[in-house]
Design goal:
- The protein contains 8 helices and 42 strands.
- It is an alpha/beta fold.
- It has 2 domains: 202 residues, Spore Coat Polysaccharide Biosynthesis Protein SpsA, Chain A (Alpha-Beta Complex), CATH 3.90.550; 167 residues, Hexapeptide repeat proteins (UDP N-Acetylglucosamine Acyltransferase, domain 1, 3 Solenoid), CATH 2.160.10.10.
- A hairpin with a 2-residue loop joins strand 4 and strand 5.
- Helix 7 packs across helix 8.
- It is globular, with a radius of gyration of 24 Å.
Length: 419
């Protein structure tokens, strides 16, 4: 009998406490933040439902009431199925337990900035508790009396080569694991959770559709070009209805939503693509998450980027950035993602904070537009509705009726002047 079906689990209450956290620059509740096709609230609800746990929303810890053992967490906590399953199997229901992951894991060394977890003996403790009975609870009481509950943790490190003389280091260590827990308190955490959610979706896909997974393994075993793993990833795509993929496009290891179009010689690798997305010819979308109705212009390059629904993306290079709804980014927008010789800084709770992260782009608020030749420093966040374009004096407005064919001109103050 699996832990999901165990009678001591079925019907247990899972209390979700409102954190009051709103994510800037979007000014929206953390529970509404999209995570690869679902909001954070929907993600929590889906996991509790899979384990037959009764989800109860409360506005404060003091409102938690249960005569039986129960779970208590917050609406700003992102956790995965493997973490929940391991916690339920390990927690001693006679004591207050608190979910713990190894502090030394690559998830925290790569994505651990601004995570306000408690540290105990190389364990990171999160706001996720098991209580023997939930009456007259206080958060400080929970934290003070809790016993760490280390969950099963496995990870694999995938080294990714980077240009050393540009970024200042030689490789990026990407953790591959489905044992993840994060506190979502900053736009940076929304970006990270989305990128990690891609691999979590794949674990769920394999576990919930074993026959589908087996068919791909057998299909890849047939003779063909390239190593076995490459043949497998080319076959391992989840493609929705009414999807149009050009015969010259390259798609591997990706989720493609209904009604999406992928143009000639485009590349989509390890990505989560929403519904009715248009990816134009020769575009490159790698390890990224695109919401419904996004548009990726021809020759655009997206790497480890996340865009909410309705964004128009034309940059030649967009990396480790979070793009809000209905945003327009021009072809020569430059969202810088490294700070050679210094540390990246972000605004958090009214303070400018230095990060250990070596690579981080920017966050663009909903409904914003950024025109060509704009450079944005790493870690910056633009408020909703920001509109930026190049200086007017760099745009040519006045064209003379006659041109000296022997002369060379420059554009200055909106007019042509002989060089």
């Amino acid at each position: 009998m699996s832990i999901e079906e165990h009678p001591r689990i079925r019907g247990m209450k899972a209390f979700v406490v409102a954190s009051g956290r709103r994510i800037e620059p979007f000014d929206e509740p953390v529970s509404s933040m999209p995570l690869a096709g679902r909001t954070l609230a929907e993600e929590q609800a889906s996991l509790f439902s899979r384990f037959s746990l009764e989800r109860v929303l409360v506005s404060d810890v003091s409102e938690v009431r249960s005569d039986e053992p129960a779970l208590v967490t917050f609406d700003d906590v992102y956790f995965t199925r493997r973490v929940l399953k391991s916690f339920l199997a390990t927690w001693d229901r006679r004591k207050v337990g608190q979910l713990a992951l190894p502090r030394s894991s690559a998830v925290f060394s790569t994505y651990g900035d601004l995570q306000d977890f408690e540290e105990r003996q190389d364990q990171a403790l999160f706001r996720f508790f098991g209580v023997p009975s939930a009456t007259s609870l206080r958060l400080d009481g929970l934290v003070g009396s809790s016993m760490p509950v280390p969950v099963v943790y496995r990870e694999r490190i995938v080294p990714i080569a980077v240009p050393r003389h540009v970024v200042g280091f030689e490789q990026w260590n990407q953790p591959v694991t489905s044992s993840i827990c994060l506190h979502i308190s900053h736009w940076m955490h929304v970006l990270y959770a989305n990128l990690l959610a891609i691999q979590v979706r794949w674990v769920d896909q394999v576990l919930t559709r074993p026959l589908w997974a087996l068919s791909r393994l057998l299909w890849a075993a047939c003779p063909g070009r390239g190593p076995y793993l490459e043949r497998l990833t080319r076959r391992a795509n989840v493609i929705g209805r009414n999807v149009k993929i050009h015969s010259t496009a390259f798609v591997e290891g990706s989720f493609i939503g209904d009604g999406t179009t992928i143009g000639p010689q485009a590349t989509v690798r390890g990505a989560y693509i929403g519904k009715d997305v248009k990816i134009d010819q020769r575009a490159d979308v790698t390890y990224s998450v695109l919401g419904d109705r996004c548009f990726v212009s021809k020759h655009a390059i997206l790497n480890s980027a996340v865009a909410f629904e309705g964004a128009d993306l034309c940059p030649k290079g967009l990396q480790m950035s979070l793009i809000g709804r209905d945003v327009g980014l021009g072809a020569r927008v430059n969202l810088m993602d490294t700070m050679p010789g210094g540390k990246i800084k972000v605004s958090h709770d009214g303070e400018l904070r230095e990060l250990e992260a070596k690579v981080l782009g920017s966050c663009i608020g909903h409904g914003s537009f950024i025109g060509p030749d704009i450079y944005l420093a790493p870690g910056r966040a633009l408020p909703n509705g920001t509109r930026i374009t190049m200086p007017k004096e760099r745009i040519l407005f006045r064209i003379p009726k006659e041109i000296d064919r022997e002369a060379t001109y420059v554009a200055r103050d909106g007019a042509l002047e002989p060089l």
